[in-house]
From TrEMBL:
This is Oxidoreductase. Its main location: cytoplasm. CDD domains: MDR_like_2 (cd05289). Keywords: Cytoplasm, NADP, RNA-binding. Residues 10-295 form the Enoyl reductase (ER) domain.
Length: 315
């Protein structure tokens, strides 16, 4: 199969598309023929060699955590899913023609593989941040870097829970944020005063890592009311850096519910092929994303012809 890997830490240029052995589903896992893989900032942070305790890296390493596709191998002890089911979820080395998932859910009706691949880590992160920051219905949450995948999910989930939201993003994404129910303002000089004019801030999230932790603390008045997923220097200000995932199965179940009820939609801004993984990382690193970026994988011949592999009980 084809798979994107890196053999050394560095920039997008270290990514290689190689021929690799097929992975197999172990106990409690499923293998999918990948149709699309989500592109997350954590992917390029791992590729750069950033020290992320939740994701220790052994070289050579595959890339990617999120994917959507068709189950073609079911591991020992797995129930409720069969070969041929369309699922989305989280695993490892998902920039590939086949990947093993450790958490998954059946895709909601009407969702494409491309769309579904953008949800797993994003929704888990959004739910975790809202819980950890302790914001309650009737309060106001400020989201710095609100137009990307996690920001899009945070805004919609918070509004669903009765939490008011203020979002900062580039000028081109102001209408997008307003469409998600947020009060919107731009980055740049004077942004703190612009936020203050929009109202009281009870809690804040840093999703972009743009060096605004001190300002977020000033706006909330309490470093305990600020959380970052993008600035490794946040603890220097007394701010928690959230990098360890909660329950992905629970997050997927909530995502299915929200999507099915029309309460959550994250658009796909741009799609890439496996051969363009480096470009996908470069674009993700540049920021200013509206929604999600995904890698689209063409169906491998075996799946296209309706053949599936025999599940392995020994691997």
């Amino acid at each position: 199969m084809k798979k994107v890997i890196f053999t050394e830490f560095g920039g997008p240029e270290v990514l290689q598309l190689v021929d690799a052995e097929d992975p197999h589903a172990g106990p409690g896992q499923v293998r999918i023929a990948v149709r699309a893989a989500g592109v997350n900032p954590v992917d390029w942070r791992i590729r750069e060699g950033q020290v992320l305790g939740a994701h220790p890296t052994v070289l050579p390493s595959g890339v990617g955590l999120d994917a959507a596709g068709v189950v073609d191998e079911v591991g020992e002890g797995v129930v409720g899913v069969e070969v041929g089911d369309s699922v989305f979820g989280e695993g490892s080395s998902t920039y590939a023609e086949f990947a093993v998932l450790s958490a998954w859910a059946k895709m909601p009706e009407g969702l494409t593989f491309e769309e579904a691949a953008g949800y797993p880590s994003v929704v888990e992160t959004a739910l975790r941040l809202i819980r950890e920051v302790g914001v309650r219905p009737g309060q106001t949450l400020l989201v710095s870097g609100a137009s990307g995948g996690v920001g899009s999910a945070v805004l919609q989930i918070a509004r669903e829970r009765g939490i008011a939201v203020i979002g900062t993003a580039g000028a081109a994404n102001q209408d997008y944020l307003r469409g998600l129910g947020a009060l919107a303002t731009t980055y740049g000089e004077g942004w703190v005063e612009r936020v203050r004019r929009l109202g009281r801030v009870d809690a804040a999230l840093d999703l972009a890592g743009s060096g605004v932790i001190a300002e977020l603390v000033a706006l909330t008045g309490d470093p305990g009311r600020v959380i970052s997923i993008a600035d490794l220097g946040a603890p220097e200000f007394g701010v928690h850096f959230s990098g360890v995932a909660g329950s992905v199965p629970d997050a997927l179940a909530e995502a299915v519910d929200l999507i099915s009820r029309g309460r959550l939609h994250i658009p796909v801004e741009k799609s890439y092929s496996l051969t363009d993984a480096a470009a996908a990382h470069a674009d993700s690193h540049a920021g200013h994303t509206r929604g999600r970026r995904v890698i689209v994988v063409e169906p491998v011949q075996a799946m296209a012809e309706g053949r599936t592999t025999t599940p392995s009980s020994s691997e």
